[in-house]
Fold these 2 entries.
Entry 1:
Amino acid sequence: MLQIPRHESKLPGWVLRGAIGGAQFGYNYQINPRWVLGLESDFQGSGQTGSNASIDQLSGAICTGATSIPAPSHCFQTNPFVGSAATGYEAKIGWFGTVRGRVGFLITDQVLVYGTGGLAYGRVEVSGTSTPSSSANFVFSTTPFATASSAFSAAKTNAGYTVGGGVEGKLLPWLPANWTWKLEYLYLDLGSLNSSAPFGGTLTAFVPAISPATGAVAIHTHFFDNIVRVGLNYKFGN
């Protein structure tokens, strides 16, 4: 009986690139001549993706045994197991939305600077292929495993947070009444997604055991993004 311990690969956070587009609505209240409070919600589709690759070390101990009928399997000895797993990843955000508070200051009658922050949520996905390369160290030799690549994928709707700021104004002369432009930056954190790439293999030399080696590479992916966006807002009422 040969068993490979489960191994976890922690990826660096995903910084994704691509275009987004959507809509927002909100409410603002001017508490005095200079300060404005508001609440905003938005939703957008996303074409943001990112790719990465890593090589992770595998290590542990395997049990060499024999299986006989009708007797159960027996472990004769343990041997060091070493190897690596080369994994290629692709991550994406399918869509996301936010619900945020906003605090603004009117630096002129036509220009508002503001800070914002609150809840973020979205669809995150990761997929890829992991290819292990490993061997077992026996008393008189090092014996490789014959293994094959394994594909993996996972998707989930996650909740996280966002913070940022921006500027909004009416300095463009061609804008009609009640329309404003906006330039905004948001830091978006959509949390983590776990996935697993199982694999199996057999020794390429004779060992007093007739059973495969099994194991898995566990992938922990953290999604975050830096977003710069421009937009037009229509103000209802005065």
Entry 2:
Amino acid sequence: MQKGLIIDNARVVIQGNIIKEVTRAKGPSQGKEIDMDNGFVLPGLFNMHSHLSMAFPSMNSAELAAISSLRAYRRGYDALNAGVTTVRTQGELHRVDISLRKMINEGWVQGPRILAGGKGVGVSGGHGSEFGRIGANGPDEFLKAARTELAFGADHVKIFITGGISASARLREESEMTEEEMEAVVRVAGSKGTYVTAHAGGSEPILKAVGAGVTCFEHGYVLNRKAAKAIKEADGYLVPTLGVTRSPVWMREHGTTEQGLERVLSAADTHLQSIKTAIEEGVKLLNGTDIPPGDLNDGINATVREIEFLTHAGLSFIEAIRASTICAAELCGISDRVGLAEPGYVADLIAVPSNPLSDIRSMRQIRFVMKDGQIVRDDLHGKRI
């Protein structure tokens, strides 16, 4: 999939958990063969903005860890069955993502590959306080908080540099952190060989964060051309989470009030235009939903729906698939082994009935899921974990 290459009548040979060979089929197989019934096989999907523990529409940071853990496990299980073989978490209660990652990696439970963010970090009383994140004030406290999360086992550090979508338009665009605070977090992450991602609503805070060395940005609700150019020039990434401003059915189903829904939907046009601007400037986009990755969004898996939203913003079908596979793996530092259906890569695979490069809606019909060489779901032969 790196070049959008399609191999007709292909045979994917898997040895252990690794793709050994991808060739045109010739003669009978030497081992066990799974017939995809003329389907199309692709790499497993990434969801780069997941909150596995979050309850909607509001979060209680005092919730018992056992409840948060069970919710996170079920969300991960649902994501994997939907074809999302890798998730990147963006701040979880009680750091349940780190614990769940251990359980999955050691084979105690089934779930997606988790790139864990632990607890997010933001200013005291600022956005995300209800998510159980760490509150900090001043560069020294931010530095300490970032060290704490990495010491607990976080794969990256999440910061909150603006207000959220439910806040007023002004708070979405105003900076909650100083550039010095951002720089402190970036220094710590860099010393551990990782990066910082930022919840970011507006352009001016994004410009500050780019200057401070932040690598990835979430949402970009109000993104002007100057900020988009800055992200591009810094070789950064943007996770638009377009579904946040265009999912009324899901939000009503999960208890959002009509007043809250109106506030969110009123930002939809500006949000979409911001992402169109980012695409025009060549910013690298990644798939992330904010909505639980295995949930249905208007009857369609939320991660797949986000792929469609990315095409509405201007990505081609292959670009939207790459934003959900190999480009995501690049940011996470695992693109040498995850994110492609090629020899030498981990066997994270999905199958759909028709060519998604001709019609992206084919992604709505994922019927086979394999993670790490193990079959998770095979609808053609009646198998599910």
